[in-house]
Design brief:
30% of the residues are buried. This protein is an alpha+beta fold and 307 residues long. The chain has helices at 3-26, 34-37, 52-66, 97-111, 124-152, 162-190, 197-225, 234-266, 272-305; strands at 39-45, 76-81, 86-92, 115-122. The chain folds into two domains: 3-34 and 126-305, Multidrug efflux transporter AcrB transmembrane fold (Up-down Bundle), CATH 1.20.1640; 39-122, Alpha-Beta Plaits, CATH 3.30.70.
Length: 307
């Protein structure tokens, strides 16, 4: 089976993965952190033996004491186990600092000695702004990539379009970003993972890495096209370029994954999901460069070169 025939299977697989990821994003959607939804996140360590039900009862006691003005809204309580203790995460409406201190005092009166591990509150205006700026970052990065590649690949033989090179690279890294989002939506069903600013940072890093991988392959394609003894078949040129790049890209990716895996195992709990997203994105970057970007170049640009 030729690479052109095999590439059709992987292109179809990629379409399925992207479609499934978009469907998951629409429904049921990501599990957002308070950075995107607004509200307050409070992580506490209760005395040994206290359960989630005990914490919920303590919240209800606080609400009864504080009255209607102290209602915490549609709150949730989740038990989490860190490296050294078992803790509870409470999510509720945005609180003032006075309400936060009153809630902690109420917990200590109800549950005993409570240790506050984390407190963060974000208003609805700021959360909406963060969503918009995150989307802006992805759009600006896409436009900048197309313009850069159109300039960098402007001197292509055979009347190949540098704009198509740019669009194909954007398609490749958007594939990686969308599939990563879909995979982490599923991960959120079974773990405490939430979409936050750190995850958006990981997506932008994946975008950059995927772009770099695709440029390495496309630059080798361009170099091969300039040889006097080049093949007249663009598919042969692309396959030759992939063979020439596989050692470099696979070696780089393995080194990155090994380094990131050590950080995932030994690093702080707060960056664990960020590191996992980078590992997943590094693997997807190689996949999309070889099995999305290169096949798209063959099938799309190859048709034009035969005209």
């Amino acid at each position: 089976m030729s690479f052109r025939q095999l590439s059709k299977f992987f292109l179809a697989l990629s379409v399925v993965m992207v479609a499934a990821s978009i469907a998951l994003f629409v429904y049921p959607g990501p599990k957002y952190s308070i950075e995107f939804t607004g509200g307050t996140l409070l992580q506490i360590q209760a005395p040994a033996g206290k359960t989630r039900d005990d914490v919920i009862a303590a919240v209800q006691t606080y609400e009864k004491t504080a009255g209607e003005a102290g209602t915490l809204g549609n709150y949730s309580v989740t038990g989490v186990k860190t490296a050294s203790e078992e803790a509870f995460i409470l999510r509720m409406r945005a609180m003032t600092n006075e309400e936060h201190l009153a809630l902690i005092d109420s917990f200590r009166a109800t549950l005993g000695e409570v240790k506050e591990l984390k407190y963060n509150t974000i208003g609805p205006t700021l959360s909406a702004s963060l969503k918009w700026k995150s989307l802006q970052a992805l759009v600006i990065a896409s436009i900048a990539t197309i313009l850069y590649l159109a300039i960098a690949f402007r001197k292509l033989p055979r009347k190949l379009s540098p704009w198509k090179f740019g669009l194909i690279v954007v398609a490749a890294f958007m594939h990686d970003v969308i599939v990563t989002i879909g995979a982490f939506i599923v991960l959120g069903w079974f773990t405490s993972f939430e979409f936050d600013i750190l995850f958006v940072t990981a997506l932008l890093t994946i975008l950059a890495y995927s772009t770099n991988e695709a440029i390495v392959v496309f630059d080798r394609v361009r170099a091969n096209l300039t040889f006097d003894n080049r093949s007249d078949d663009l598919s042969d040129v692309v396959v030759a370029a992939l063979k020439q790049c596989v050692g470099r890209t696979s070696g780089t990716t393995v080194a990155i994954v090994i380094m990131l895996s050590s950080l995932f195992i030994m690093g702080a709990e707060s960056i664990r999901w960020f590191i996992l997203a980078l590992i997943f994105g590094a693997v997807m970057g190689v996949y999309s460069s070889y099995l999305v970007a290169a096949p798209l170049l063959m099938h799309w640009e190859g048709k034009n070169t035969k005209k």
